[in-house]
Write a structure and sequence with these properties.
about 80 residues; mainly alpha; single chain
Length: about 80
């Protein structure tokens, strides 16, 4: 089974790309179309990963810190 048939997101992106090219009146080269779609999907995944890392690095989202954590008593 090919990559596009196995991955629903990739297949949808591929078909959307072909539709967009057809609307512009251009004929898409299948190899070029696959490369463009895969580049787009990789860019989206990289952006999501970067956004997720930014959320996890935010101290407000740190679930390891408890509001009941006591600081030492200084005399």
């Amino acid at each position: 089974m090919c990559l596009l048939c196995d991955d629903e997101k990739a297949y949808k992106a591929y078909m959307d790309f072909l539709d967009a090219m057809e609307r512009k009146g251009k004929v898409a080269d299948p190899n070029e179309a696959i490369d463009a779609v895969l580049d787009q999907l990789e860019a989206l995944d990289a952006a999501r990963a970067k956004e997720k890392k930014a959320r996890l690095d935010d101290p407000a989202n740190d679930k390891t810190l408890s509001p009941f954590f006591c600081s030492p008593i200084n005399k």
